[in-house]
Each structure stands twice: as C-alpha cells, then as structure tokens.
Design goal:
With 280 residues, this protein is an alpha+beta fold. The chain is 55% helix and 28% strand. A hairpin with a 7-residue loop joins β4 (49-54) and β5.
C-alpha cells in the first residue's frame, strides 16, 4: 500500500501485546546507498523509521512507528524494515497529518517500507516469513561482515600496540646506547689528555736525560783536563827555575781555578735547564 512521506503506523491487538511484552523481538534496519556525490558538503542519512511510541498498556495496548522520509542529494534510499522474531497478527492503522488514510487487519513477521514510483509516496508492505528471512539474512551478512572487520580491526590494533611497544623498546635502547657513547667519548677525551700528559713527561724525561749525559760528559772532560794540567804543574814544579817558575805555576793554578768556575757554571746551567723542563 502507498503511504505519505510522513506517516504513523499504529499496531494494536495481539501484535502490539507481543511486541511490547518482548515475546516477539523487534529489529529495525535500513539500507541506503551512496552512488557518487555531486556537491561537496554533508550528506545526511536520516532514519526513515524514526521513533517507536508504545501506549499505556493499562488503557490500550498500541505501538506507533513514526515514518519520515526526506530525500537526500547523492543518497538513494533502498528500504527500511521492522523485523519480528516470529509471525504475529493484529490490526493496523495508517495516519497522515492526523487523519486515518488506511486501516485493517494484518498478519506479519515484518514491515517493509520502500520508495515508490509515485512522487511523495512510500510503499508499505506487511510481509511474512520469506521476505523477512531475506532481510534477516542481509542483517546477518552485515553482522558477520562487521564482526570480521572488528576482528581485523582488533588484530590491527594489537599489531599497532606491539609496534608501539617495539618502538618504545627501540627508543629506550637508543637512549641507552647514546648514554654509553657519551660515556665512551668522555673516557676517550680523558685518555687523550692522559696520553698528551704522558707524551709531555716523556719529552721532559728525554731533556733531563740529555742534560745528565751532557753534564757527565763535560765533567769527564774537565777531569781529564784537570789531570793534564796537574801533570803540567808537576812538571813545571820539577823543572822550576828562578825566572819562570813562579809565573808559570801561578798561571796554571789560575787556569785550574778558572776551570773549576766554568765547571760550576756548566753544572748550574744544566740545573736551570732541568728546572725549566719540569715547569713546562
């Protein structure tokens, strides 16, 4: 039967009792299809069966289904359905603008509303098992698809969580390695400083060693020269004469004295060089 875009479906009798008491379970579903979008903006998918209003059971058991259809650009309405878990029967009344447009008795396992070929009208059908089974199968397929997608989503969420934990672990390892690298750099810098100090000490040691070797060599030469001059002095003293002995001996003694002064100067010079090397 045809109903207006805005209508109220009133069910009473046994069907209303079964629905309101929960003896017959009710599922409400709707199928719409988007087949491309002409304009950029919001496409509102309004529910055709918008609300259910049960009446006071103590006075009169009735249940009302409000139907409102508003065409949407780029969105095709396929059908809306009220699917019952079992076949029930009772009377119905269709109202539009507070006027009864149709009434009668119905036996049904569902109510299907679809778009009609008549402008401003919807097609309403009280249907029994075969048609509602198709809708239930569609709902089950959608439910199974949703469960599959939920399972895949859960798997992806778990994978994401694992990746987050792995990333956190890698960040922790990176920080640990960075800390160790910084520590190694500090140790390397300290080792470089220690090596430089060791090289400096080795250089000072070499200078002191050379100074000691030069001092020892000079002392050896001075001792040899002193021995020679002492020999000459003895010779002159042995062959002394009245005219030259005294003058020659004094000269030799003076030379020997000067050599002692020079030796002291050399020793003092070597000592100062050693102190300067240690201060560096």
């Amino acid at each position: 039967m045809l109903i207006d875009y805005e209508s109220i479906i009133i069910i009473d009798g046994k069907a209303a009792h079964d629905i309101m008491s929960g003896q017959v379970k009710t599922d409400i579903c709707q199928k719409s299809s988007a087949r491309g979008f002409k304009d950029i903006g919001f496409v509102r998918n309004n529910a055709v069966i918008q609300c259910i209003s049960p009446s006071n059971a103590e006075i009169d058991e009735k249940i009302k289904f409000s139907v409102v259809y508003k065409p949407a650009v780029s969105l095709d309405f396929d059908f809306a359905a009220v699917v019952f878990s079992d076949i029930t029967e009772g009377s119905f009344e269709i109202r539009s603008q507070n006027q009864t447009v149709c009434e009668g008795n119905c036996r049904m396992s569902g109510i299907i509303i679809s778009l009609s070929d008549t402008e401003g009208k919807l097609e309403l059908e009280f249907t029994e098992k075969d048609e509602t089974d198709k809708i239930i199968n569609l709902i089950n397929e959608i439910s199974d698809s949703n469960k599959k997608e939920e399972s895949e989503l859960l798997s992806l969420e778990n994978l994401l969580e694992d990746e987050k934990k792995r990333r956190e672990s890698l960040v922790f390892k990176k920080q640990d390695i960075s800390g160790k690298i910084s520590q190694l750099r500090l140790e390397t810098e300290k080792m470089t400083e220690d090596i430089a100090k060791i090289s400096d000490l080795e250089a000072r040691r070499d200078i002191l060693k050379r100074n000691l070797e030069e001092n020892s060599h000079n002392r050896e030469k001075m001792n040899n020269l002193r021995n020679q001059l002492e020999c000459y002095s003895s010779v002159f003293e042995f062959y002394k004469n009245e005219t030259g002995y005294s003058t020659v001996k004094e000269k030799i003694d003076e030379i020997i004295s000067d050599m002692s002064v020079i030796e002291n100067h050399i020793a003092e010079f070597a000592r100062k060089r050693s102190e300067e090397a240690e201060e560096e």
